[in-house]
Amino acid sequence: MPSAHELSARLADLLRNERTALAEFLVALADFDRKRLWVDLDRESLFSFLTRDLGLSAGAAYYRKTAAEVLQKFPEVIEPLRDGRLCFTSIVELAKNITPENRHEILPRFFHVSKRQAKAITAELQPAQVVPRREVVSRVIVAAPPPMAETRSLAAALHPGPNRIHR
Fold it and tell me: What is d(CA 90, CA 167) in angstroms, rounded to the nearest whole number?
């Protein structure tokens, strides 16, 4: 039976392989998209190819499509994905913020952060615009109360009297 240390080493090795495989998949996917090969398969988009041909869920396809697009523009993202500095789930937030001008400052901000932390970075970098709000106050017109006779008949109609319980 393997020891805890042996299993731990095996898990670390598998994780490295997983990261490498994901990075290689994304590199190949970026190339596939750059060449628009999904058109040859009668697909209207890379997303459609990922969901229909590869059977990915919409969420999984979105992350991979976004990562492939980022890799096409910023190949320096691949190594951090491969070695684990950049979490695959934070790539969507990175895509919202990275530009050719800021890539050297922005990319490291997303290293070793969770998806939630990546969203916080986006909120910091792109604060929500405060939409001006205008309140319009208008006069409230209150109708005159009905004459006293109508009030009594209305009250009688609404409350016919005490309920009786029959035994």
Answer: 71
Burial class (CB in 10 A: 0-12, 13-18, 19+), 32: middle
Q: State how far the Cα of 94 lies from the Cα of 76, in Å rounded to an integer.
A: 13
Contacts of 103 (CB under 8 A, 6+ apart): 74, 76
- pTM for the whole structure: 0.72
Summarised one tens digit per residue, pLDDT across range 97-153 is 999 999 999 999 999 999 999 999 999 998 876 667 778 777 777 776 666 655 566
Place of tokens 């919202």: 96
Contact 65, 46 (CB under 8 A): yes
Q: What is the pLDDT of residues 31-78, one digit of tens each?
A: 999 999 999 999 999 999 999 999 999 999 999 999 999 999 999 999
Q: Give the whole-angstrom CA distance, residue 48 versus residue 65.
A: 10
Which is nearest to 30 in space by CA: 101, 91, 87? Answer: 91
